[in-house]
Amino acid sequence: MHQTLKRMFLCSACIYLPIVAHAQEMELPTIQVIGSSPVAGDSIDRDKVPTNTQSLVADDFDRNKSASVLDTLSQQTPGLQISDVQGNPFSQDINLHGFRASATQGTPQGLAVYLNGVRINEAFGDTVNFDLVPSVAIDRADVWTSNPVFGLNALGGAINLQLKNGFTYDGLEAEVTGGSFGRIGSSLQYGAQKDNWAFYTSGEEIHEDGWRDHSSSRIKRFYTDLGYKDDVREFHLNLSAASNTLGVIGPTPVEELARRYSSVYTFPQTTENNMLMVGLNGKVSLNDDWAVQSNLYVRHFDQKHVDGNTSDVAACAGDPTQLCLGDAVAQNAGSGQNLSSSLLPGTGLNQGIAGSIDRTHVNSDTVGASLQTTYDGSFLTLNNHFVAGANIDYSSLSFSGSNELGTIADTTIDPYVVGSGITYQTSDGLIQPVKLRAKNTYQGLFSSDTLDLTDRLSATLGARLNIAQINLSDALGNSPELTGDHRYARLNPLAGLTYKLTPDMSIYGGYSEANRAPTPLELGCANPAKPCLLEGFLVSDPTLKQVVSRTYETGLRGHSTVNADSTIDWKLSAFRTDNSDDIVSQPSSVVPGYGYYVNAGKTRRQGLDAYVQYRTSDWSAYTTLAYVDATYQSNLTLTSANNPEADANGNIAVARGDKIPGISPWQLKMGGDYKLTSALTLGADMLANSSQYYVGDDSNHNAKLAGYAVFNVHSDYQLTKTIKLFAKVDNALDRKYATYGTFAAVGDIPSLGLSNPQTITPAAPRAMYAGFNVKF
C-alpha cells in the first residue's frame, strides 16, 4: 500500500488528492500538490512549500473562453496584472509583484516562463511571446512568486505551464467562436489511450480585424503529443508550432484618441512570429523512493517586426540640398552616397514631415536538456523530499535591423509612413544597418530538500547555480563595438519553514535569491552616447551588471471541506523583494526615439496578497486583493526627454522612495459562476486596478494614469449531451480605460495639432462573442 499511496501523491496532473487507507478505514486529509521544479514528473505537498503559489487547471482556462492564456492567469492569480502595451489582445504583458514578462523588446524582464519544462523566454531579449502558447491544450499552470530553482529571470517568480496528453485528456472536441471586431476562431482537440500508449493533438486558428485601425491579427497554433506509460516509466514525444501575424499599433496620443477612439499614431506596425519546437521528456521510477526525470528539446523562433515612425531627418543646415539627422548627413546605405533633400518631391519631406520604416528580424535556434533525480523516502526516520538536477540551454541567434527612408502624408488622423525603398544610414554611424550574431549558453545546477522535522513542521533548504555565457559578434563589420564576450555566474539560496497550525491551515516563511543576466539586446545597447532604436538597433556593448533579487515572504493558507458539498481555499501572504543593479531602459537625449539600458541601483517591491475561493456543486465564487509598493531605493538621474517635468537636457531626478511607474499599487478581483439549472450556467468577473504613474514619470511629478474597474459576463448552455452553447461579453459596461501610458514627442506631425505628450494604449470597448462546443 505504501507504493500505491506514493504514486497517488506524485500525480503531477492532480491538485486535490484524497487518500484513503482502506485497511484502517481512515480518510486522510486532502493533499494539494505542485511541481517543485520546471521538469515534469515531480510533485510535493503544497503545504510544505515556503512560498506563495497558485495553480489553475484546464477547466479554469475553458471557463472564460479566452484565446489568450493571460486572461485566465490574471483573473484568479493575486498580484498578477495585465498591461496592454502593444494594443493587441494576443500580445500583452503580465506584471507579477512589479516584475514583467513581456513580448515587447526593450522591456526589462523579471519572470521565468516554462512550457512543458522548457524555458520560453526568448534568447535575444528574454521576451515572452504568449501568443505562441496553445491555449486549448493547457492542462495546468503553476505560478510561483519566488523559487530560484526556476533559474534565470525568476526575480519576481515563475510560471510553469503543462500541456495535455492522451493520459490526461480523452475524447474529441471541436469549438467555433465568432463575435465583435470580426473575430472568428475554431479549435479541435483529440486525445485517446490504448493500453500503455496515448495520443493527443490540438489545433486552433483565430482571425480578428481588431477594434482599432490597422490592428488585424491571425493566429495559428498546433500541438501534438505521443506518450507511453507503464508502472515504472513514462515518456512523451511532443511537437508544437505556431505562425502568427499581429497588428501591434501601440500607444496613441490622448488628443488623437479624443477625436476618434480607434485611431493610431503611426503605422504600419506589425509583428510576425513563427515557432517550431520538438521535445522529449520522461521519468523512470528506480524503486519506491527514487525516480529520474529528463527533458530534451529543440526550438526554432523567427520574428519579423515592421514599425512605421516619425523621423527627424530634414534638410541640412549647412547645405539645404542634402538630408541630415542633426549634424550627420543621411546616406544611402547601399551606396554610401548622400541623400538629396529633393528626394520624393511633393511629399512629406519637402513639408518637413519625414518618416522611417524600421525593420528588425530575429532568428534563433535553441537546444537544451535537463536531468533531475527525486527522492521521496525517509532520512533519519523523518519524511524527506529531495530533488537535484542540472540543465543546459544553448542558443544561436542572429539579429538584423535597417531603416527605410519614408514620408508621412499631411493628415489629421492615422499617419501612414510611405516607404521610399531606400535604406539609409547617417555619416556619424548612429543609424546604420546592423547584423548581430550571438551565442548564449545557460547552465544550471539545482538542489532542494524538504525535511519533515515533525508531523507538522517542515524545513526546506536549496540552491541553484546559474552560469550564463553570452558571445556577441558584428556580422557586417560596421559596428565592431558590438563584438564581445560576457560571463555571469551566481549561486542563489533558498530556505524556509512551514508549520501546520491545524490539519486545514498552515503558516510559512521563507527567503530566496534569484538573478538574471543581461540579454544580448541589453548588452548591445548600453552606451548612452550611442543609443539604439529599442525595437532594434545595436551599436556597442558596455558591460552591464547582472540583476540580483532577495525575497522575504511569509503567509497563511488553508483549504478544507466545509461539508459534503462545499470546499473553501484561502491564503494571505506578505512579501518584500530587494533588487540590486536593476536594469532599466532609457530614452535617448541624443537621438529622439532611441534609447539604451543602464543599471539603476537598488529597487524594492513589497506588498500583500489575499485570496479566497468557495465552491459547491451549484456555484463558486472567488475574491483576490493585492497590494504592491514598487519603489526606487537609490537616488538617480534618468532621462525622460518627453516628460513635461524634464530639465533642459531631458533629465529627471529620481529620489529614493519614488514609485516605479507602470504598476498599479492596488488590485481587486471578484467573480463566480452559478448553475441556474442543470444545463444553464451564468458567470461574471470584475477587475479593478488603482491609478499608476505613466512610464517615463519615474520622479512622480505628473498626473497619474487613471484607475479603472471592468466587468465581464459569460454563460453556457448544455444543449445536448455533446453540444454546448456559450456566450460572453467583455467590458460589459463599455468603460473607457487604459492599462499602459507613457510620454511621446507629439510635435513631429504638425497637421495633427498635438501638444499633450501623454500617450496611452486604450483598452477594447464592449465586445460580444458566442459559439458552440461539440465533445464526443
Automatic annotation (TrEMBL):
One of its GO terms (cellular component) is cell outer membrane. InterPro entries: Beta-barrel_TonB (IPR000531), Beta-barrel_TonB_sf (IPR036942), Plug_dom (IPR012910), Plug_dom_sf (IPR037066), TonB-dep_rcpt-like (IPR039426). It is a multi-pass membrane protein. The keyword Transport applies. Residues 1-23 form the signal peptide. Keywords: Cell outer membrane, Membrane, Receptor, Signal, TonB box, Transmembrane, Transmembrane beta strand, Transport. The keyword Lipoprotein does not apply. Residues 221-731 form the TonB-dependent receptor-like beta-barrel domain. GO terms for biological process: siderophore transmembrane transport. One of its GO terms (molecular function) is siderophore uptake transmembrane transporter activity. It is found in: Cell outer membrane. Residues 47-158 form the TonB-dependent receptor plug domain. Belongs to the TonB-dependent receptor family. This is Iron complex outermembrane recepter protein. It comes from Pseudomonas extremaustralis.
